Amino acid sequence: MPVITCIEDLKRIHERRAPRMFFDYAESGSWTEQTFRENTTDFEKIRLRQRVAVDMSGRTTKTQMIGQDVAMPVALAPVGLTGMQCADGEIKAARAAEAFGVPFTLSTMSINSIEDVAEATSRPFWFQLYTMKDTDYTARLIGRAKAAGCSALVITLDLQILGQRHKDLKNGLSAPPKMTPRTIANLATKWRWGIGMLGAKRRNFGNIVGHVDGISDTRMLGAWTAEQFDPTLDWDKVKRLMDQWGGKVILKGILDPEDAKMAADAGADAIVVSNHGGRQLDGALSSIRMLPSIVDAVGDRVEVHLDSGIRSGQDVLKAMALGAKGTFIGRSFIYGLGAMGQEGVTAALNVIHKELDTSMALCGETSVNDLGRHNLLVPADFEGNWQP
């Protein structure tokens, strides 16, 4: 096993081992990718305050997210097509998260189904819901998540209209991949991935195929999916979905203080400050820039988490110090999964945990729950003086 010192190490291996269309799917944003880039580079603008002569024994990164004990304030974010990065990818990622003690979130657009992941794990996971026009399908999907014992519903709010990602169009992205000459040539160099996929439990969208009438092949599935995202989603529909679920709800895709207030009014248990990893509205501000104003807007009315751009434990520390109560990682664990399967996801979590623990100690703190603005040096213009 190669020596892994940082998330970037896993990314390099992932790029070598995964087919180009699936690596590009993970490593891309919409349009010019400005927001995708700034999600990570804006973290670099924040500096940490070093403090010394503090007793560093008895440190802990343990905390809670929506009342659930976690080994560190990190959850694995929902990522579509995870099972195409590595055979049975959702199962492997969920097992790694369970063993580490952090939440795993299964995407509606997963390869392994809700039932597959539930059968392979022993603790409840979270389920992410895309709102579809087919309300009967949505209701059955919620029912399946309940039956599987999922402990939270994560409703994604920022995918009513699908943002354009140039690489996916050029690569002809699909699950399983379309066998064009270019794809065949690329797959021929990814023998490790191919051998794994031969033994995979599934190679298509497990939460959809077999659960929607008339969906029998990839072409039909693609057409159905493209037409199904619900452009009429509003707060009344969000509340109805919350009532259907009847349990803990996290609303993902909040990037404006006014929307954060409305999510709190709706009774969400948590919100996720997120721009969908820069994959939807290009030109939007990064999640970390928007975090302080959203925390100020909602106070303690709703738990605030942050997603988009986290590539290190120091990023987790910065988000927590700016007021988040938890974070989500997507690409960081996908790099690990695509590089080395379940071991790679564990490696990603270990990297982030070590960086968080060490950086927290050097900032003079012994608990993530004590992190605050006093641990940071933030540029005076970090949030910007934007004029509407």
Draw up the topology in text.
Blueprint: H1 7-17, H2 20-26, H3 34-41, E1 47-48, E2 63-65, E3 68-70, E4 74-76, H4 82-85, H5 89-100, E5 105-106, H6 114-120, E6 126-129, H7 135-147, E7 152-156, H8 166-171, H9 181-187, H10 191-198, H11 218-228, H12 235-245, E8 249-254, H13 257-266, E9 270-273, H14 287-298, E10 303-307, H15 313-321, E11 326-329, H16 331-362, E12 376-377
Parallel strand pairs: 4-11, 5-6, 6-7, 7-8, 8-9, 9-10, 10-11
Antiparallel strand pairs: 1-12, 2-3
The strand count comes to: 12
How far the N terminus sits from the C terminus, by CA atoms, comes to 51 Å
Q: Describe the largest sheet.
A: 8 strands, parallel
The name of the CATH topology is TIM Barrel
- List the secondary-structure elements in sequence, H or E: HHHEEEEHHEHEHEHHHHHEHEHEHEHE
Based on CA inertia axes, which overall geometry fits? globular
For the largest beta sheet, what order do the strands appear in spatially?
4-11-10-9-8-7-6-5
Estimate the helix proportion, in percent. 40-55%
Number of helices: 16
Seen as an oligomer or otherwise, the chain set is single chain
Cα-atom radius of gyration: 20 Å
Average pLDDT over all residues: 95
